[in-house]
Fold each of these.
Amino acid sequence: MSERRRLDVLRAIVEDYVRTREPVGSRILTERHKLGVSPATVRNDMAALEEAGLIAQPHTSAGRVPTDKGYRLFVDQLAEVRPLTVPQKRAIETFLSEAVDLDDVVARAGRLIAQLTGHVAVVQYPSLRRSGLRHLELVPTGEGRVLVVVITDTGRVEQRFLDVPVTLDDWTLGELRARFNAAAAGRRLTELGSAFSSLADSMPEEHRTLVTAVAEVVTAALGEESEERILLTGQANLARSGMGFEQGLRPVLEALEEQVVLLGLLTEMTDEAGVAVSIGHENRVAGLSETSVVTAGYGSSDGDSVAILSSIGPTRMDYPGTIAAVRAVARYLSRVLPG
Amino acid sequence: MSERRRLDVLRAIVEDYVRTREPVGSRILTERHKLGVSPATVRNDMAALEEAGLIAQPHTSAGRVPTDKGYRLFVDQLAEVRPLTVPQKRAIETFLSEAVDLDDVVARAGRLIAQLTGHVAVVQYPSLRRSGLRHLELVPTGEGRVLVVVITDTGRVEQRFLDVPVTLDDWTLGELRARFNAAAAGRRLTELGSAFSSLADSMPEEHRTLVTAVAEVVTAALGEESEERILLTGQANLARSGMGFEQGLRPVLEALEEQVVLLGLLTEMTDEAGVAVSIGHENRVAGLSETSVVTAGYGSSDGDSVAILSSIGPTRMDYPGTIAAVRAVARYLSRVLPG
DNA sequence: ATTGGCACTCGGTCGGTGAGAGTGCTGGAG
DNA sequence: CTCCAGCACTCTCACCGACCGAGTGCCAAT
């Protein structure tokens, strides 16, 4: 009983099941895949695969279906990378480069993933924590209020209102703005706290409180969990391919709306620079136990990613295709991102 | 045959059907609603209502179900306003006031609508066209590029990159910034074009092209359809109450993802200051023929709205409750919005 | 090790039946 | 003229039993 062929059988089962959405039996298997052996032989292999927990049969007299473990083996060892076609790559490139600002980039990336993979797309906005500061702006709004605008080098813009005790004239504000930007130039946002506190020390008494207040606002904005924003697209795809969910769409849709949990999952599973796949019950989130998540980091071209993008679909998905699409979009996204 | 009672019967049918999700027959009707007449009499009324196209029966031997037309009559004449409870109002108020910026306000409003109504929430970001300018910012990014940041009085921030032929020093940039803001102060964004072109005339030759370029960027940003952004939340609610869709969730989810079409529908149906309801086939969008849309404008407290918020659920929805929730959120939203 | 043959299991489908719900109609009472 | 009780009729749904086919596991033969 050759070990080699057993894996071929597993691959054939996965590919067939992904395509037809129906449990696959020994006869069909030998007909559609040139295995060179008879159904009976395949049955022996299938029994072994089932023994190993890689496939299962829904009913006594139905064909076999891959288990999560089976998909895992398939993804890790059996799947052949299937690069995108040239036109596809070009389409991604042009579509992304037409974006007018960061929101647009993220939205377009989501659309691309949703369309290419046929699943739900999740795109995290570039994380504030891992971004650098491009510019800090103070805008007077009268009534002793100042609008603090933070622009990151990934193009993200955050704004906060700030109540200041004194009314500031334009000149002073301009001066402060210049100092802030000088102090912060090129630093990571997380380093800003210390930079600003040393700045405060060098300021005249009257403005010290303002500087401290601004520093607090900025660091507070960073500290908030809520600042990690994500975009969801393509839920309609779930309904399309989704009649296959045993539990129905509800738990999936509900899980997707738990943004904090979802983001936690994505962050946890995304490792260094590659594409990560989490299959079925490997996802700790309850509602996603019938789905697989494919993620990749994106961001600066020098390796360390500033955010995550991913595709979420039924465990019965086209893994090679999905992985290729996610990787491609992540790659071009990193290239297009300002900074 | 009293006209009055016939409407009572319609109301009873609507209320019962909304609650139980099951076609309602004459017997049940007399048991649950004190109509003071016998089932036989109700049957006569029902026959008349069916003749008038207000109700229909799915099968020969099933109870009656309201038609779109029936819901319409119910909403227009029969529904009693049911104001929110005080705790609910207070919850809305505090939840909205905790928002840190515009994105957050919109996100929270969406959550509120989704949770209060149990349907899908759609919130349009304050429209650029109808907003005023609070501040225009020019940020140098080196390499002969300038980042143009537009901050509206509704708190929305838009940004565009602009290639400029000359490299600008900080002082010149500050000067330009001051002039722009002086020229634009307090105007509607749509009036900016003329304001800037007259500004360009008064500028020295060397900066005239830059001014024109900035003006173009700003007006271009306004002209884009894509700039009308919307937020969708609560799709999971569709799955919850959504087993009642004859055609399944797919067409609904797909329609919701056609943002341009969806926004067109909302804009079209929203009239002056009140709450508007569009029922079933009244929606021109194909996928929404089994849903009802409840919208309200929100924005400046002086009546003219700057954006739309709405709740989309099955035609079999609790109209009074949904309308009350949408109106309440729109009202508080208008109050909370900066400006 | 592979294969053909065979008995066995079990899910899905089809046709028929009975119960129940709801209706429309008719004729009579207030 | 309005209302109502009774009745015959229709149609859906749930249930039942039988059948068919797909697929399996095992065994003996090559």
Amino acid sequence: MSRQKKPSSRPGGRRDAGRPRGAPIEDAVLSRTLEELVEHGIEGASVERIARAAEVNKTSVYRRWPTKGALVAAALERVALELGGKLEDQGSLGRELEALGAHVAALLESPLGRSLARAAMAESVGVELAALALREVDRPREAVLGLRARAQARGEWRDGVAPETVLALLVGALLHRALLERAALTPGFIASIVEVIAGGLKPAGVRSE
Amino acid sequence: MSRQKKPSSRPGGRRDAGRPRGAPIEDAVLSRTLEELVEHGIEGASVERIARAAEVNKTSVYRRWPTKGALVAAALERVALELGGKLEDQGSLGRELEALGAHVAALLESPLGRSLARAAMAESVGVELAALALREVDRPREAVLGLRARAQARGEWRDGVAPETVLALLVGALLHRALLERAALTPGFIASIVEVIAGGLKPAGVRSE
DNA sequence: CCATCATTGCAACTTGATGTTGCAATATTC
DNA sequence: GAATATTGCAACATCAAGTTGCAATGATGG
């Protein structure tokens, strides 16, 4: 997905001659692109500025990545926002949801995470780019599965509630607060939404607090 | 907030002379701007295209609204997305939340509503514009207050849960589904999130289903 | 060592968008 | 009918995306 000017198979000639593409350029440009994303967001990012800052000619950038979207996508591909993937057993569904919520909140309050979340929801970005951003923002998806298994074992997860529903509620509420209302994701807020979600998940009759 | 070249008080001269600004132009441009927003989103909107379609010179547009942001803001100001504001008493909290959710879902599935929601969360738009879009998207805020009063009277709303929390959960989950996952807001989905929220709101011990 | 060949930098260019400016034509009010 | 403000028009500046041709550079294979 990177190179495009294929050396191709020249009929009668040397196969591996010529100057190879510089890996340093690739690195410099992509990492600078990430900084640009953080600073200016995905719409405000400028290829020329990226090239200048990476001390590379604009042409060399365009030779590798044909459009700004492709460049941004390539930069995002190497991001792996670590989500402390392994949410451990916290003893109760409420505590686990709160830990997960805190992780997502931290992500949404970081410049890169916020930028990614907006990118995933923007309209102008291509579908592939949106999918890429979504992959990062929605990383907790995996975590929820383990969480549900433990909650079911504890009798804290009523039958018939899909994990996606819980994810939408938890992440959605954080998105609403962070991006729409532009308010801070305080521990108090996280606790209040988790309280409602955990309460709504409990099977009828089982009430512990 | 519209006119800017004030006729001012000329010392010795007529006060109200000259050609007045044409209201038809204002109307044509603003309504065309809304269509442009629906078609191209807030970033992709082009002032030149708007002017052409409204059969008005670009200059005349810029004379009234100094920037694209101001133009879009002015267009949004005259929008009043009616939310069937008066959600009636539906007999139970669950049914009321479902009705409210259905309203918001319909809004989020309409082109203009979707465009507004994205605008409210975008980064590049000015603060004033974001606030304007938020005002429309978050219109259910008022409805939730009446809803809570009735739910409290029915004993379906546990003490200490803020209406904002419920709004964030409900609207947030819909945003997550519609904009992030880009999936349809089916009645089934709405029912599933409402079920969890309503369950989580009930006071301990009160379980009806 | 050296010819080959791709990569690189450089400069100029096209296109489309925002926003500005000067001017002549027009419409309106006094 | 004179004064005055708006309008259309055309030209302009600026900036970002993306393209193209060319000369210089550097790796590689022989």
